[in-house]
Specification:
This protein has 147 residues and is of the alpha+beta class. It has helices spanning 3-20, 90-102, 139-146; strands spanning 25-31, 45-49, 52-63, 68-76, 81-88, 107-112, 115-118, 130-133. It has a five-stranded antiparallel sheet with strand order 2-3-1-6-7. Strands 4-5-8 form a three-stranded antiparallel sheet. β4 and β5 (81-88) form a beta hairpin. α1 runs parallel beside α3 (139-146). 29% of the residues are buried.
Length: 147
C-alpha cells in the first residue's frame, strides 16, 4: 500500500470529523476475550477484532482534526504491515498520557467509523502522544476511506 493512500485516507477521516463535529477516530475502553477484568461490562458493545470478539465501553478520547499535529505512514518492520503514526497536540497528548497511566494492564481500542483497528494492552504510560496504527489496511480500504 502506498504511503500517499494511507495519508489521504486518514486525512480525509480527520477532515470529515472536523466538518461533522463528530470524531470518527476514537479511543474506547475495551476488554479482550482472554483478559480478566473486575469491570462490569454489562451493556458494553460487542465488536470484533481480526474475527475475534471484543467488548467496547465508553469513549475515552475522541480524536478530531485539531487533536492531531502530524500524520505519517510507513511499513512497520516488526510486522511488515502498513502503519499510520499519529502525533497528538498538547491537549490530546496530556489526556492520552492520563488514560494510559490509569489503564496499565488494560486494553484500549482504537476505533475508526465503528471498526476496531487495534486493541493493545497498555504496558506503560505513554506521555509523548505518539500512536501507531496497524490494522491490516489494504489499498482498497484506504481508497474507500479517501472517497
Amino acid at each position: 500500500m502506498s504511503r500517499l493512500a494511507l495519508l489521504l485516507a486518514l486525512s480525509t477521516v480527520l477532515l470529515a470529523s472536523a466538518a461533522s463535529g463528530q470524531a470518527r477516530l476514537v479511543l474506547r475502553e475495551a476488554v479482550l476475550p482472554n483478559q480478566e477484568t473486575a469491570r462490569d461490562t454489562t451493556g458494553w458493545e460487542a465488536a470484533t477484532l481480526d474475527g475475534d470478539p471484543i467488548r467496547l465501553g465508553n469513549v475515552l478520547l475522541p480524536l478530531r482534526l485539531g487533536d492531531v499535529r502530524g500524520v505519517s505512514a510507513s511499513v512497520d518492520p516488526n510486522v511488515s504491515q502498513p502503519a499510520v503514526a499519529l502525533e497528538l497536540n498538547r491537549r490530546a497528548r496530556l489526556r492520552f498520557a492520563a488514560i494510559t497511566k490509569q489503564r496499565i494492564g488494560e486494553a484500549i481500542a482504537l476505533v475508526l467509523d465503528g471498526r476496531v483497528l487495534m486493541a493493545p494492552t497498555v504496558q506503560t504510560q505513554i506521555p509523548d502522544g505518539r500512536l501507531q496504527i496497524t490494522g491490516g489496511f489494504t489499498l482498497a480500504e484506504a481508497e474507500d476511506l479517501a472517497s
